[in-house]
Write a structure and sequence with these properties.
Bound molecules: adenosine-5'-triphosphate, magnesium ion
Largest sheet of chain B: 6 strands, mixed
CATH superfamily of the domain at 183-376 and 388-412 in chain A: MetI-like
Shape of chain A: elongated
Radius of gyration of chain B: 24 Å
Mean pLDDT of chain B: 90
Number of strands of chain A: 4
Low-confidence stretches of chain A: 419-423
CATH architecture of the largest domain in chain B: 3-Layer(aba) Sandwich
Largest sheet of chain A: 2 strands, antiparallel
Strand order of the largest sheet of chain A: 1-4
Structural class of chain B: alpha+beta
Strand content of chain A: under 5%
Largest interface: A-B, 22 and 32 residues
Helix content of chain B: 10-25%
CATH class of the largest domain in chain B: Alpha Beta
Structural class of chain A: mainly alpha
Radius of gyration of chain A: 35 Å
Number of domains of chain B: 2
Strand order of the largest sheet of chain B: 6-7-8-3-9-10
Distance between the termini of chain B: 36 Å
CATH class of the domain at 183-376 and 388-412 in chain A: Mainly Alpha
Low-confidence stretches of chain B: none
Oligomer: heterodimer
Number of helices of chain B: 8
Order of helices and strands of chain A: HEHHEHHEHHEHHHHHHHHHHHHHHH
Chain lengths: ~425, ~350
């Protein structure tokens, strides 16, 4: 029986994390693709080479002209004057010209006097520039460079190969980017703010407030309240967020209402970072609070009624009852909700994506949304899978660390009460 | 402090549990509420301490009408049937809770908890949590918590149910001593008649939400108002013979047994009656011989217990000093002390 469970755990729980970790260690993007690459001297590669090998970089970037058999064959196929190819083969075979101007000067001086148009035609045939040529193998590129007159040491070859490789490679660069980029720092702060405020104000405090107040209500009233507070959770997110959008649109309820007092209509959701945060936290808070309320309500229900009776008889006020009887016995549910909600707030971004899309600007861009934008969906079209995966991995690590801290704070060990029998 | 229930009624939704109950507990008195399970003992207790509001009627503490006072303001100590200890607090915190919510200084609380813990012999357990205590220890913690703020009224809902026989005896006298010393007015709920008789000044016997009789233990034993009361008190219990009135005597059909009784004067012949005979009134002493066959014998150490079947099939119980000349199957002719029997009408009322 253990085998299927192990397979399931491996496939559906462990594999995604392992894959994320693997992707995180690469520089995969839309450009590199996720399979192997080729070697190509792109403008980008030349820019990368400029720092280490300025001469070579300059040289490769320039067109090169080589009189070789391949070019002669092409020339003969053009059926121009036969003398051109004969003379080139006889007296210029193997010559290399570092620029078009020099090559054309030589061609112009041929005995058969090619016209200006023919000079251009011929010189094109001998253009052996590697710029933007795609080589399927590393050796192909090296052979070609050699033919062009670049003699490279093995170390130099390596540098060139690395710079011109278009596929993905293993790298830890992603983490350096995450660690050093001010954008990332801002997104991190956004996330910390969003998670802690939503968690503290709504998912825990507000949920506790709801659970405790409904506990003291008559049963029928309480269940009506609970059902109402559960609505955000059971409404499909798209529709729920749409209702908030309707509320905050230029022509929405708030604008209409404020219009009565002479305020101009505006989009309250996106007009300022402050407002955007306000609504993002409300939207998520109401959804999150309903889950906490359910968990806390049932935990309070599980406290034997006589404990409430006893504490009343003992003289405890409502507040003292909440403080000394209810709250201490909710430690485990509070831990659970805090943990669970931290993780789900960290990981889920659909409400934000549907409401502000991280805007205005990137004001409400949180970590998971940024990872999504980086790896799966952005305007530039270059999806950075590697970087996105690294961001996701950071999220996983942060989640685990936070969970451990929570267990510590709530003294998990004391929650498991000691056995009755002693020796 | 005197407790008075005046036409107290309590219903839960449409279920009437208590109807028009009148009950007075004198100041410093300890009263037992005795009755079978589900008769409304706890309900009555909960109304006295303010957990349940009466559906109608009044509850007075002394001259103070507390009917609408919340529990917090009644100064009542309660030991609940299920103890209701706070599982997340230590024994010390549990006992100190009533003082803590009154914001008594913590040094004071500590001292008072130590005193009361010594009184109920749990001074070694103060650091433990309820889950680490036995049932009897939990009960004593509950008792200590009920006593610590010196309540005017002490309510005990079967406080000894979980103790072993020895501890139960000890706690019985302990609770009684505490109650007498402090002069607290107390109500003890129990369905153990021995407990009720040994601990309390008076007993109120309840049946389906009604008090059938209130009296001192000996009055109640010797002068039960109904057959229910008679059957509830006494161990081994009373036995009943079903018969009829005939010319001022109780006649057991089929056996020829005839008991002339003064109480039956003027009762029409043929009235169905039930005769209650306590085991100690059937045996060697007494004036009316009764023949039967022993079907069951049991020794209880100092005494023997016999069940005797009369010719008509009814059973009389007898308790006698230990003897070993009678065995199950033997025919016996023992005496019945007719003056000590009770006659009940068919509806259970004593005649
Ligand atoms: N909250 C309630 N709702 C409805 N019925 C109740 C409620 N509490 C008690 N009852 C009913 O009232 C009756 C008396 O209950 P109560 O708890 O007073 O019995 P009791 O005499 O204490 O019994 P026991 O000796 O078993 O504790 C029972 O029939 C019970 O079912
Ligand atoms: Mg009860």
């Amino acid at each position: 029986m253990i085998a299927p469970a192990a397979v399931m755990i491996f496939l559906f729980f462990l594999m995604p994390v392992v894959l994320t970790a693997i992707f995180a260690m690469t520089n995969m993007t839309t450009a590199t693709g996720i399979s192997g690459g080729a070697w190509q001297v792109t403008q980008g590669a030349i820019n990368r080479l400029k720092a280490d090998m300025p001469d070579l970089a300059g040289g490769i970037a320039e067109p090169r002209f080589v009189i070789d058999e391949e070019g002669l064959a092409a020339l003969e196929a053009l059926k121009l004057k036969a003398g051109f190819s004969t003379e080139l083969r006889a007296s210029h075979m193997g010559e290399v010209f570092p620029s078009r101007r020099e090559a054309e000067r030589m061609i112009k001086a041929l005995k058969d006097r090619p016209s200006t148009r023919e000079v251009k035609q011929i010189s094109d045939l001998f253009n052996r520039s590697v710029l933007n040529t795609r080589f399927e193998t590393r050796d192909g590129l090296m052979a070609s460079l050699k033919k062009l007159g670049f003699t490279l040491t093995p170390a130099e070859q390596e540098t060139v190969a690395t710079a011109t490789y278009t596929g993905w490679v293993w790298t830890t660069e992603n983490f350096r980017i995450i660690g050093n980029s001010p954008d990332m720092a801002q997104i991190f702060l956004n996330t910390a703010f969003y998670v802690s405020v939503t968690l503290l104000l709504f998912n825990v405090s507000y949920a506790l407030f709801l659970a405790i107040t409904t506990h003291y209500m008559p049963a029928s009233t309480a269940s009506i309240f609970r059902a109402i507070w559960l609505l955000p959770r059971i409404t499909p997110v798209v529709i729920y967020v749409l209702m908030w959008k309707w509320l905050t649109w230029d022509s929405g309820f708030i604008s209409m209402f404020m219009g009565q007092f002479g305020y101009p209509a505006k989009n309250y959701l996106l007009d300022s970072a402050y407002n955007a945060w306000f609504f993002v936290i409300l939207i998520n808070g109401f959804i999150g609070a309903s889950m906490g309320m359910l968990v806390f309500s049932s935990a309070i229900k599980a406290i034997p009624q006589t404990q409430f009776h006893a504490s009343e008889v003992d003289g405890a006020s409502r507040w003292q009852q909440v403080r000394h009887v209810i709250l201490p016995q909710l430690r485990w549910p509070i831990l659970f909700v805090t943990c669970y909600q931290t993780l789900s707030l960290l990981a889920s971004f659909n409400e934000i994506l549907l409401s502000t899309r991280g805007g205005p600007g990137r004001a409400t861009e949180v970590w998971s949304l940024a990872a999504y934008h980086t790896a799966l969906n952005n305007y530039t079209g270059n999806l950075e899978y590697g970087l996105g995966a690294a961001m996701a991995l950071v999220l996983v690590v942060v989640g685990i660390v936070l969970s451990l801290i929570y267990l510590r704070i709530f003294r998990y060990d004391t929650l498991i009460s000691k056995p009755l029998i002693e020796d | 402090m005197r407790i008075l229930l005046d036409k107290f009624s309590k219903s839960f939704g449409s279920t009437k549990v208590i109807e028009d109950m009148d009950l007075e507990v004198g100041s410093g008195e300890m009263l037992a509420l005795l009755g079978p399970s589900g008769c409304g003992k706890s309900t009555t207790l909960f109304a006295v301490c303010g957990i349940h509001r009466p559906t109608s009627g009044r509850i007075m503490f002394g001259d103070r009408d507390v009917t609408h006072l919340p529990s917090q303001e009644r100064n009542v100590g309660v030991v609940f049937q299920s103890y209701a200890l706070y599982p997340h607090m230590t024994v010390e915190e549990n006992i100190g809770f009533p003082l803590m919510v009154k914001r008594v200084a913590s040094a004071d609380i500590r001292k008072q908890v130590a005193d009361i813990a010594a009184l109920v012999h749990i001074e070694d357990l103060l650091g433990r949590r309820p889950a680490q205590l036995s049932g009897g220890q939990q009960q004593r913690v509950a008792l200590a918590r009920a006593l610590i703020r010196r309540p005017d009224v002490l309510l005990l809902d079967e406080p000894l149910a979980n103790l072993d026989a020895k501890l139960r005896l000890e706690m019985r006298s302990e609770i009684r001593r505490l109650q007498k010393e402090t002069g607290i007015t107390a109500i003890l709920v129990t369905h153990d008649q021995v407990e009720a008789m040994s601990m309390c000044d008076r007993i109120a016997i309840m049946k389906s939400g009604e008090i059938i009789q209130i009296a001192t233990p000996s009055q109640m034993y010797n002068d039960p108002r109904t057959s229910f009361v008679a059957s509830f008190l006494g161990n081994p219990p009373i036995s009943f013979l079903k018969g009829q009135a005939h010319q001022g005597a109780f006649v057991l059909g089929g056996s020829g047994l005839r008991l002339p009784l003064a109480t039956l004067a003027g009762i029409p012949d043929g009235t169905a009656l039930s005769l209650g005979v306590r085991p100690e009134h059937f045996g060697t002493a007494g004036g009316v011989p009764v023949e039967g066959k022993v079907v069951f014998a049991e020794t209880q150490g100092r005494e023997n217990l016999y069940d005797v079947v009369l010719p008509d099939g009814s059973v009389l119980r007898s308790i006698q000093p230990v003897r070993d000349d009678v065995k199950p199957g033997d025919s016996v002719r023992w005496n019945l002390d007719s003056a000590s029997t009770f006659v009940f009408a068919e509806d259970g009322q004593r005649l």
